[in-house]
Amino acid sequence: MARSDTVSAVDTANADGARSVDPDGAYALTDVVARLRRVLRSSIRSEYPWESLPMAQVELLQSLAEHSPARVGDLAVRLRLAPSTVSGLIGQMMAAGLVERGTDPSDRRAAVVDLSPDGRRQLADWHAAHRRRIASALGDLESGERAAIDAALPALSHLVDRLAAQRDESQD
After folding, report:
1. The CA-based dihedral angle spanning residues 100, 104, 109, 111, taken in that order and rounded to the nearest 10 degrees
2. Residue 113 backbone phi and psi in degrees, to 5
3. At 95, is the secondary structure helix, strand, or coil?
4. Is residue 170 predicted with pLDDT exceeding 70?
5. How many other CB atoms are there within 10 angstroms of residue 125's CB atom?
6. In this predicted model, what pLDDT tens digit does every residue of 17-28 receive, in sequence order?
């Protein structure tokens, strides 16, 4: 499928009326999302060099911003990484001043990790740089294209929720 093709045939109906998904449409969506993420990550490096940190560290910071403080094991499950990998990332990020280790108030024997003030600031700066980059690119699109993207956001958000639920169901 050419990159200029649209994802118009994702949902089709079988002869018996049952819904099915066109594999080509699903592939086109996956391709567009992957290319968008890749180009955003690479283009942001010119504006915000902190992006050169491994994406695993960025995702760990994002996870802590949503749910903190957190135990290493909980972060590992949430990020689908090995606990030793998360421990290594936390060590690197502590050395960089992005996270702080503390004690779990509900179990003084357990350690928890939280964003440091510098980690919160850098994550906010990273998000702001991404918003500026996307806003600039959206500004270059035709109004109809911007409207189509805006109209697709609720469905894409629902798709994210479905994928997360399927992932969680497969872990049970």
Report:
1. -30
2. -125, 145
3. helix
4. yes
5. 12
6. 556 777 777 888
- Angle in degrees, CA 97, 81, 96, rounded to 5: 10
Residues 47-105: pLDDT tens digits?
666 555 677 888 899 999 999 899 999 999 888 889 999 999 999 999 999 999 998 88
Supply the angle between the helices 72-79 and 83-95 in degrees, to the nearest 10.
110
Count CB-CB contacts under 10 A for residue 55. Answer: 10
Amino acid letter for position 78: R
Find the angle CA(145)-CA(149)-CA(153) to the nearest 5 degrees.
170
C-beta of residue 24 within 8 angstroms of C-beta of residue 9: yes
Amino acid at 142: E
Q: CA-based angle 149:150:151, to the nearest 5?
A: 90
Q: Which two tokens stand for residue 76?
A: 């590992």
Those residues with Cβ within 8 angstroms of residue 57's Cβ, 6 or more apart along the chain or in another chain:
89, 92, 93, 98
CA 85 to chain CA centroid, nearest Å: 18
